Amino acid sequence: MDKIVGKHSEYTYQLLTRYPNPQKRIEAGFDKLIEIKRLTASKIQDILSVAPRSIGTTSPAREFEIIEIIKHYKRLIDKAETCVNDLMAEFNSVITTVTGIGNRLGAVILAEIRNIHAFDNPAQLQAFAGLDSSIYQSGQIDLAGRMIKRGSPHLRWALIQAAKACARFSPAFKAYLKTKLE
């Protein structure tokens, strides 16, 4: 099942808390599983199709253990979220004013960059994030290739996530992205 749904997504936690073994998922059926937020119809079909072949336990003790572990993870995640929110409020950074960047992405970006003044120009920050393109030069030919992907993978991930969110929520950025992709 971990190939169908993410291990640490909210809907996976809900699914395993409500239906901790494959048999209970089969018994619940499509109509009950669709009530779980963000669980799509296609994912439900996949879950139900692998349920008969899934290794699971019908032990009430094991089911209780799974549910308690998930509750423990949720408490830890909530605590971490609170710490991040408190730190971001303390920093009072303007980064969260950018469309698509909330406290979580802002914290990742700030933690990876550390000191913005260490970069003399935007190109250095772009290279640090691994978002610069390779250049192929031969004689009179200059070609820009793919992203090099050296540098900070965490910063690169956060910036790409922020750009995706910005493209979803900002009409101006969505239009700009559309012209770039055409």
UniProtKB/TrEMBL annotation:
Organism this protein belongs to: Streptococcus pneumoniae
One of the protein's GO biological processes: DNA transposition
Domain (Transposase IS116/IS110/IS902 C-terminal) ranges: 93-177
InterPro entries: Transpos_IS110 (IPR047650), Transposase_20 (IPR003346)
Domain of life: Bacteria
Molecular-function GO terms, alphabetical: DNA binding; transposase activity
Record-given protein name: Degenerate transposase
Pfam families: Transposase_20
